[in-house]
Amino acid sequence: MKTALVTGASRGIGAQIVRKLAGLGWRVAFTYLASEEAAKGLAKETGALAIRCDARNEQEIAAATETVLHAFRHVDALVHNAGTAWTGLLQDMPTETWDDLFSLHVKGAFLHTRALLPSMISRQQGSILYITSMWGEVGASMEVGYSACKAALMGMMKGLAKEVGPSGIRVNCVSPGVIDTDMMKGYSPEDKQALVEETPLGRLGKAEDVAQAVSFLLSDDAAFITGQTLSVNGGMVI
Ligand code: NDP
């Protein structure tokens, strides 16, 4: 049975990835930070293993990795999805907020990846996916730090794909556009309508749209795909 660890999956895109993979017969573990009730509910619904683990914390990641490897024996796929956004002018951004964003998105990806790589390398197989953003591809005003984090993940993905390809491990990114999750809750109905109008496919994305792309890239159908970013944005960025 294929096994996966999905980070930051109590809600939104991550939760949908867990549902998708579990529905396809994968054994799934996922991490969360604060939404304990939602995490428990998802675990009950899908049979997945919920682990409280802050993706900014090296010790917690080491412990979570041990728990997953103990329960599953091996992990075929890592999806680093945990993420938050910060909106505002760069000149107003506190240093701690910059550090916090990089700690979650980039250092979190590094720590989770480093923790699982030895077991993937010893089996000469595995798949690693980072959830990035169209803003990492083209940059967003008022989300400069967030754009920088997502661009950093794309660079990391490319380097790692070259480094671990000879060990049979594929590394890719899925880059969502506007996806209607809690991350969008600050947007008014008018703001959302304006985004719909900017999107060639004429709607906001759903978490399920991203989960479909993730399950494809993790599947054997994508066996010769590595070092790539698959954009799921309805054509908003082409
Ligand atoms: P949500 O805000 O809906 O969910 C975020 C998830 O991340 C929650 O499960 C949350 O857990 C978890 N999380 C937050 N901080 C931590 C942490 N320190 N450690 C572990 N888990 C954490 O976001 P989305 O589902 O919308 O976003 C998921 C990913 O997709 C992010 O990386 C985001 O940048 C990216 N993305 C989203 C887009 C969108 O439009 N929604 C567009 C492009 C990219 P808890 O609630 O338990 O704290």
Description:
- This protein is α/β, with parallel strands linked by helices and 238 residues long.
- Helices cover 48% and strands 15% of the residues.
- It has eight helices and seven strands.
- The chain has helices at 12-23, 36-46, 58-72, 95-123, 134-138, 144-164, 189-198, 207-218, and strands spanning 3-6, 27-32, 49-52, 77-80, 126-131, 169-176, 229-232.
- Strands 3-2-1-4-5-6-7 form a seven-stranded parallel beta sheet, sandwiched between helices.
- Helix 1 (12-23) crosses helix 8 (207-218) and helix 3 (58-72) packs parallel to helix 4 (95-123).
- The protein starts with a strand and ends in a 6-residue tail after the last strand.
- NADPH dihydro-nicotinamide-adenine-dinucleotide phosphate binds at residues 7-14, 31-35, 54-56, 81-84, 104, 131, 133, 176, 178-179, 181-184.
Distance between the termini: 36 Å
Query: In sequence order, what are the helices and strands, one letter per element?
Result: EHEHEHEHEHHEHHE
The total of beta strands comes to 7
Cross-sheet strand order for the largest sheet: 3-2-1-4-5-6-7
Number of helices: 8
The global form is: globular
**Backbone structural class:** alpha/beta
What are the segments in which pLDDT stays under 50 over at least 5 consecutive residues? none
The averaged pLDDT comes out at 98
Instruction: Work out the helicity level.
Output: 40-55%
Q: Mind summarizing the main beta sheet?
A: 7 strands, parallel
Bound chemical compounds: NADPH dihydro-nicotinamide-adenine-dinucleotide phosphate
Mind telling me the C-alpha Rg? 17 Å
Beta-strand proportion: 15-25%
